[in-house]
Amino acid sequence: TDAYKNMGNKTAAIGYYDRAIDMYRKSYGNKHPDIANVLNAIGAHAMSENKFSEALKNYQLALKANVSDFESDDESANPRLQNFYNGRTLLFTLLLKAKALEARHFGKTLKFTDLKLGIETLQRCDTLIDKLRQQSTNESDKIALGVIASEVYANGVHMAYEAADVALRKRPYRELAFYFAEKSKSAVLLEAISESDAKSFSGIPALMLEEEKNLKSAIALTAQKLAQKPTPEEEKYLRETSFSLNRAYEHFVKKLETDFPGYFNLKFNAASPTIRQLQQLLDQKTALISYFIDDENKRLYTFYISNNAYKITDHPLPADFDRQITGLRNGIYFNVMEAYIKASRNLAKLLLPKMPGRISHLVVIPTGRLSIVPFETLLTKDSEAIKSFQKLPYLVNTHAVRYEFSAGLLLQKTKQGNSRPTNIFLCAPVSFPEKDNLNELPATESEVKEISQLFASRNIRHSIYTRQEASEHLVKNSGLKNYSLLHFATHGVVDESHPELSRIFLQNTSEAEDGHLFAGEIYNLEMDASLVTLSACQTGLGKISKGEGVIGLSRALVYAGAKNIIVSFWSVADESTSVLMKNFYQRLLEEPSSGYSHHLRQAKLSLLKNESYASPYYWAPFILIGF
Question: Least enclosed by CB within 10 Å: which of 182, 235, 569, 604?
């Protein structure tokens, strides 16, 4: 059938689709997920010919075929998300139905009811995604679910934004657009941590982890058997089993929420905060800017939130958007001023909304390939005539910038100012085993020694470990939770493809350790740190990523107990890093209540004043993740 469709012989394809349905119905009756799949294909064929109502009729039939107790032909009705045979097929049908409603609205009726029902159908998709993700057990299922989920959320942002344009009550739809955008980012977070390979999460009994695994496996197996269209007697038994298992899983999750809130937030809490909740977190001088890219419709959405304002702007995504990001990064990395200025100015016009003068602090929540852009380097004025790195109008000149990966993370962290540092743990391996093929970092030894002297001069406890002392065994057994500041001056690597392989490199002094502190092992550490700094960490400037890799490392640190993190987009293992870090800690000790983003900005500005280090290459890679 698909072969005829791909050859353009749609009549033959439809004929074979009809024959397939007849065969399935003779074998299985009217209820089977394979029937739903064929009806989805027939609906997609009707959509290709702009026969919107015919497509919707087939999608409604597909819903009926895939849900045992759903019999409605009314396109305004959607099934309860319980007695379905195949969850992924159901999700796909609901998505296709929502897109058909949107297409009918814009292509034919212009009825707001079509757009409204399409959005409600996507909300049903969102609920189903959460349900399927919690119960997903194998990697291929997670990948397939992630692909459909990203499409659901992109359509949600687009449709909610369009609905706000024509609705009488605009705010609910404008807030819904933000909700869908943030759920997309939460989904990325959950995918990044789902296979962390942590042997046991801190404080969670192994038996509970095993119980979770067994419940998920049993639910998946029951769903698989139901999808195979059993006999009525078998189906009744499987339905009862599925109900009992799901109830047991709900009770299990509630127990986790009560007894292990950190683990619950990590694995299950994908809630997106409301605009009002975020506004209550922001003071008068701070704004939050969140971005969402809709690749299908080539749009960039910018959500601007301050304590008394909420705005969405929608821009066409430039055809050379990726090239501009590459130009910015390469211009910085290779000190090519002309390429950098051009790319930076173009991106600034696209990414930076107009803000009142009172806003001096920004919380940036990037998306996709924006996750590796250092926003501090964006130029706020036209600068073609300027020939000196020192004189360029960087965003860092006027704003302190920090980053988060989703708005949901802001609510998981208690709002707090920087407390006065009580102690610091400093670690610098300097050299590394030959097998790791890593350059020595001689400047890191002087870096941690000079920082320790700053704390010693104020009689603040400091523990410093260099060379062979800076081992993986030390980090796992040195009571990190007793330190308010942790500083690792070492190599780090982020694996964008497999976040669980992201790691920090340390010395290997035990046969039981390999010197690689993996993200999964970081989850098991116990920290109570106000700040963790990875001063020579390299997250890789040369590859455009969706941000999963950065999340893989930093999310592990957050779970382990880090309130804030400083990481680097690329490695600058020379004297400039030591200068910046020493300056940062000096300012932190002098003004402990001013905030880490303020201290980091001042440290960067001090490098800018030094002609030798004025290029963004030296000061731009270091970013603060946290609120």
Answer: 235
- Contact yes or no for 410/367 (Cβ under 8 A): no
Residue among 601, 463, 626 nearest 533 (CA): 626
Other Cβ atoms less than 10 A from the Cβ of 454: the count is: 17
| CA atoms within 13 A of residue 504's CA, in its CB half-sphere | 34
Report how far residue 410's alpha carbon sits from residue 290's, in angstroms, rounded to the nearest whole number: 13
pTM reported for the whole predicted model: 0.87
Quote the pLDDT of residue 499: 66
Q: Encode pLDDT of 133-149 as tens digits.
A: 777 666 556 667 878 88
CA-CA-CA-CA dihedral for 492, 493, 496, 500, to nearest 10? -70
The pLDDT tens digits for 62-115 are: 999 999 889 999 999 999 998 888 889 999 999 999 999 999 998 888 899 999
Q: To which H or E segment does residue 517 belong?
A: strand 516-518
Round to whole Å and give the CA distance between 249 and 134. Answer: 10
How far is 260 from 202, CA to CA, in rounded Å? Answer: 9
Q: Name 532's bridge partners.
A: 486, 565
SS3 281: helix
pLDDT over 90 percentage in the chain = 49
Asked if 216 contacts 137 with a C-beta cutoff of 8 angstroms, the reply is yes
Cα(525)–Cα(478) distance, rounded to whole angstroms? 10
Q: Which residues pair with 465 in a beta bridge?
A: 427
Q: What is the DSSP string of 72-83?
A: ---TT----SSS
Nearest partner of 85 among 108, 59, 64, 107, judged by Cα: 64
Phi, psi for 594 (deg, rounded to 5): -80, -20
Which residue matches tokens 């790195």?
389
pLDDT digits (tens, 9 = 90+) for 438-479: 888 888 899 999 999 999 999 999 999 999 999 999 998 888
pLDDT at residue 519, as a whole number: 81
Q: Report whether 149 contacts 187 (CB < 8 A).
A: yes
Please determine, for residue 417, whether its predicted confidence score (pLDDT) is greater than 50: no
CA separation (Å) from 301 to 167, 212, 288, 320, 327? 19, 38, 14, 17, 22
538 in Cβ contact with 568 (< 8 Å)? yes
Sheet arrangement for strand 503-505: 516-518, 503-505, 492-493, 537-538
Separation of first and last alpha carbons in the chain? 54
Question: Distance between CA 33 and CA 19 in Å, rounded?
Answer: 16
366 within 8 A of 547, measured Cβ to Cβ: yes
Return all residues near 196 (Cβ < 8 A) that are at least 6 apart: 499, 500, 519, 520, 523, 552, 556
Q: What sign does the CA torsion over 232, 238, 240, 246 have? A: negative
Find the Cα–Cα–Cα–Cα dihedral 112, 114, 119, 125, rounded to 10°.
170
